[in-house]
Design brief:
Layout lengths: L3 H4 L26 E4 L6 E4 L8 E7 L2 E9 L3 H11 L1 E5 L4 H11 L5 E5 L5 E3 L2 E3 L12 E5 L12 E3 L11 H12 L5 H15 L1 H6 L3
Length: 216
């Protein structure tokens, strides 16, 4: 797959469907922007191999066999989710299968932050990638933000993205808590596109070496 800098070119999305992925917005969320948050390598890291310090162990049946999935929570994810739930209408959107991601989300989101959960079947399969087409959500695109570690996931709408580094097991990671002040400011902005453009430029500059050497 191409590197991050190649992935961010805008790819025309398919026409929006007659029926949108999200239900009508809750009255408590009126006036809030919608933030779409990825799961794997953004909020958690999961493995079929046993992890001694796993936060969750989730049984998942695959082809009639039950496998134990070991899940690590990214540092500060609890604080991040609680704050995001205060500021935005939050939606979990993952390319993973619901039979894995749904029970993980049950354990992860103890506060009911996610107003909706979208899984692989809600993605668009495009050039070998599961893409999260934000135009299918049923929300005004100028008020939608996607937080994701994979540029391929938001290739249709890179201008709506807050990119994050993939996380696996670094216990010193502070990316989620470092993003909170940014999101506090973003929640009050009318023009999110200019703010997000500046963020992506900073992200590219900070992570230039890793991005150029990465193979997605």
């Amino acid at each position: 797959m191409p590197c991050w800098c190649e992935q961010v070119q805008v790819i025309a999305a398919p026409s929006p469907p007659e029926k949108f992925l999200l239900p009508e917005i809750n009255t408590s969320d009126y006036g809030k922007k919608c933030v779409v948050i990825d799961l794997d390598e953004t909020l958690v890291h999961s493995s079929f191999k046993p992890i001694s310090n796993a936060d969750f162990i989730v049984p998942v049946e695959i082809d009639g066999i039950v496998h134990q999935v070991y899940v690590l929570k990214r540092p500060h994810v609890d604080t991040f989710l609680q704050k995001m739930g205060e500021l935005f209408e939050c939606v979990l959107f993952t390319a993973s299968l619901a039979k894995y991601a749904d029970p993980v989300a049950d354990l992860l989101d103890q506060w009911g932050v996610f107003r909706a959960r979208l899984f692989r079947e809600s993605c668009v399969f495009h050039r070998g990638n599961y893409v999260k087409d934000l135009s299918r959500l049923g929300r005004e695109l100028s008020k939608v933000i996607i937080v994701d570690n994979s540029p391929a996931s938001y290739i249709f709408h890179p201008e709506n993205a807050v990119p994050v580094q993939s996380w696996f097991d670094d216990i010193t990671d502070t990316e989620l808590i470092d993003l909170i002040p940014f999101f506090e400011g973003l929640s009050k902005e009318e023009d999110v596109y200019s703010v997000l453009q500046n963020l992506r430029s900073s992200f590219l500059e900070i992570h230039k070496e890793a991005i150029l050497g990465a193979s997605w």
